[in-house]
Structure to design on (274 residues):
């Protein structure tokens, strides 16, 4: 199939998608009412965004929580006193 | 976050999607009915007021569980004990009253096969009822473990998370199915 012909068919197919709203065409609709169309529309948005929202909320919570954990980790490390023979405070440990 | 709570959070994630699917399917079927034809005229009406009272009981049990968690942190099992008992009693009352409501509806002719409304009602509310019964049993076991000093922080936080899920998903179901 030549390039322009293929592009024309693709364009025709894309334009045909615009008719779906006009004729209330839907693969799974049993009625062509506005309420039903809106219900499909909103439930699609709901079911698409809900898992994404849950994942984002979970990651946000984990990132906030892990910051606290890491801070505590470094605090512990800072408290470690390395014994040094030159430091008079640690002299006793070496004696 | 302890491992018990994290595991329960992941489980609840899947449960949220299950109920979201139910609610979406219900909303679409409800919207496909002609105006004034939902609920179906030949089917019994759902007891909105009585279920509102049940909803209040369940929400109060969630509050009691919240306080049980706080008191357990501050004063241990002794401080949390009355709140756990209150949450359990309210949970049992919810399940019992819902069971009585179901019995009445079945007697009036609303069954799983009587209409689309009946199918959705028993599937959606029934799924929640199964969760509520499991939550009540788990709470009873947790309470027993608490009293015998065998309660682990993991188990307690996981149980509380599940209880909050059962409590918080219910008002959404009530709004969608009953109202």
């Amino acid at each position: 199939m030549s390039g322009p012909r293929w592009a024309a068919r693709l364009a025709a197919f894309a334009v045909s998608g615009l008719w779906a709203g006009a004729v209330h065409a839907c693969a799974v609709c049993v009625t062509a009412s506005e309420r039903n169309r809106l219900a499909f529309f909103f439930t699609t948005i709901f079911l698409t965004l809900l898992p994404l929202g849950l994942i984002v909320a979970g990651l946000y919570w984990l990132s906030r929580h892990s910051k606290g954990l890491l801070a505590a980790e470094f605090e512990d490390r800072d408290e470690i006193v390395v014994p040094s023979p030159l430091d008079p405070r640690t002299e006793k440990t070496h004696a | 976050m302890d491992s018990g709570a994290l595991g329960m959070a992941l489980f609840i994630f899947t449960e949220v999607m299950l109920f979201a699917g139910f609610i979406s399917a219900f909303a679409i079927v409800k919207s496909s009915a002609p105006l004034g034809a939902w609920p179906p005229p030949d089917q019994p009406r759902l007891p909105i007021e009585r279920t509102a009272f049940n909803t209040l009981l369940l929400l109060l049990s969630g509050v009691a569980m919240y306080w049980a968690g706080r008191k357990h942190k501050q004063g241990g099992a002794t401080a949390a004990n009355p709140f756990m008992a209150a949450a359990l009693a309210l949970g049992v009352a919810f399940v019992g009253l819902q069971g009585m409501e179901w019995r009445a509806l079945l007697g009036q002719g609303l069954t799983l096969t009587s209409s689309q409304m009946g199918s959705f009602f028993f599937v959606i509310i029934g799924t929640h009822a199964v969760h509520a019964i499991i939550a009540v049993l788990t709470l009873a076991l947790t309470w027993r473990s608490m009293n015998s000093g065998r309660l682990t922080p993991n188990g307690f936080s996981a149980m509380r998370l599940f209880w909050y899920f059962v409590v918080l998903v219910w008002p959404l179901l009530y709004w969608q199915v009953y109202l």
